[in-house]
Amino acid sequence: MNIQSSSSLCIIGGYDLLSKSFFSEVKLKHYNSIFINVNEKQINKRSIYNYEIFELKKIINTLKKHKVRDILFIGKINRPNLSEFKNDGEIEKHLPSLIKAYRKGDGFVLATVIKIFEKKGYNILSPLEISNKFFLAKKDLSRLSGKADKYDINKSVKILNDLSRYDNAQAMVIVNGYILAIEAAEGTDNLLKRTAIVRKKLKQLDRNAGFLVKIPKKNQSKLIDLPVIGLKTLILVKKANLSGIAINAKFTIIKNKIKFMKLAREYSINIYNINS
Fold first, then answer.
1. Do 263 and 172 fall within a single domain?
2. Which of 93, 153, 161, 261 yields a CA-CA distance of 20 to 30 A from 118?
3. Could you give the CA distance from residue 82 to residue 41 in angstroms, rounded to a whole number?
4. Which residue in 186, 195, 185 sits closest to 245, CA to CA?
5. Dihedral (C-alpha) 222, 257, 50, 55: value to the nearest 10 degrees?
6. Do both 266 and 145 map to the same domain?
7. Are 107 and 146 in a shared domain?
8. Residue by residue, what is the 3-state secondary structure of 219-236?
9. Neighbours of 45 (CB within 10 A)
10. Residue 177, exposed/middle/buried by CB under 10 A (0-12, 13-18, 19+)?
């Protein structure tokens, strides 16, 4: 998609380290940019608006005011509570589709939100369309060699793809063929903390072996909720005595990529690319 520097761009998401990095990148490219923060913490800064994700009328009016054409969803977006929905003259038009999606899972809710904005004529951008500095290049990645490692990662990919039908889990941990943990609602950080506890109990597992496998859900939109890893991921992988991380590099966002790769080398943690 062609993004013109003269067009207005809006980032919608939680105002966190990742989204701030993207916002800075957008401003460097001289876009007329605004940020709509949809998480609870109020941010009082220029060009930042604070709304609930379901305050659709306010969001649309702000987009019109700034002549926004392109939207990027990035940063943590909390799942909205249906009981807190309030009629605003706009959101109620979409409640039937949102309620239907809500019953299926977070991924379906986010995909429905994207469709709402697309129907109103907005271009929804992929993070990769903003900058490739948040993604690993071929030179940053290691090659799998052992058959056992390839088997473990392929097994993990199959399991995660199968779970995608339930809109559940982007990540799991596997060691020597053993499935140690599968991501639930707690997120990847807590998945790895749980893994560290389990490993202490399973003495038969090789030390410094195994993988965190983290990939997009099968058939999920690549415009929102892409997998994210960063320095904290590496620290927790190290504490869990894992030797590597397997990702789909094309669709995995790396927080603070330069420091990430430096720490990965320091910890001897290999990053592998897989096609999921």
1. yes
2. 161
3. 19
4. 195
5. 10
6. yes
7. no
8. CCCCCCCCCEECHHHHHH
9. 9
10. exposed
Question: Domain with 238 in it: what CATH number?
Answer: 3.40.140.80
For residues 3 and 69, what is the distance between their CA atoms, to the nearest angstrom?
9
Question: How many alpha carbons lie under 13 Å from residue 115 in its C-beta half-sphere?
Answer: 11
Q: Are residues 143 and 22 in the same domain?
A: no
CB-based contact 188:233 (threshold 8 Å): yes
Domain harbouring 52, CATH code: 3.40.50.20
Task: List the chain pLDDT tens, one digit each, 276 residues.
Answer: 455 555 689 999 999 999 999 999 998 876 689 999 998 788 889 899 999 888 899 999 999 999 999 999 998 877 767 666 677 778 888 888 888 888 887 778 888 889 999 999 999 999 999 989 999 999 999 987 788 889 999 999 999 999 988 887 899 999 988 999 999 888 999 999 999 998 888 776 777 789 999 999 988 888 888 999 999 999 999 999 999 999 999 999 999 999 999 999 999 999 999 976
Q: Is residue 251 part of a domain?
A: yes
- Which token pair is 80? 């909205």
Give the helix, strand, coil percentages of the chain, each rounded to 5: 40, 20, 40
- Give the residue among 126, 138, 231 at the shortest CA–CA distance from 189: 231
Question: What's the CA gap between 177 and 97, in Å, rounded?
Answer: 41
Q: Are residues 147 and 267 in the same domain?
A: yes
| CA gap 172, 211 in Å, rounded | 8
The structural domain count of the chain equals 2
Q: pLDDT for 12-32, tens place per residue? A: 999 999 999 999 999 887 668
